[in-house]
Amino acid sequence: MFGRRVPVQTVLLFSVLAALVCGVLAVYFGLHHSWIAALILGVLAVWFAIDALRARSWKKK
């Protein structure tokens, strides 16, 4: 932001953590039959996992 980039390691770390938290919460809500919350959190978990993979590919370059 404002001409400075966030380090790739930071993006990777926070994306992995967010994916794990969202995934665990999605399973929790799914087991308690709250399907809308489970669906939203599942989509977010996939979103953050893809972001982590993209950050990992940036790190390899």
Compact summary:
This protein has 61 residues and is mostly helical.
Task: Explain this structure.
- The chain has 61 residues and is mostly helical.
- Helix content is 82%, strand content 0%.
- The chain contains two helices and no strands.
- The longest helix has 26 residues, at 35-60.
- It starts with 7 loop residues before the first helix and ends with a helix.
Describe the biggest sheet?
A: none
Number of domains: 1
The low-pLDDT segments are: none
Distance between the termini: 22 Å
Percent in helix: over 70%
Rg over CA atoms, rounded to whole Å, is: 14 Å
Transmembrane segments: 12-29, 35-53
Keywords: Membrane, Transmembrane, Transmembrane helix
Structural features:
61 residues, mainly alpha, 0% strand, elongated
SSE blueprint:
Blueprint: H1 8-31, H2 35-60
Helix pairs in contact: 1-2
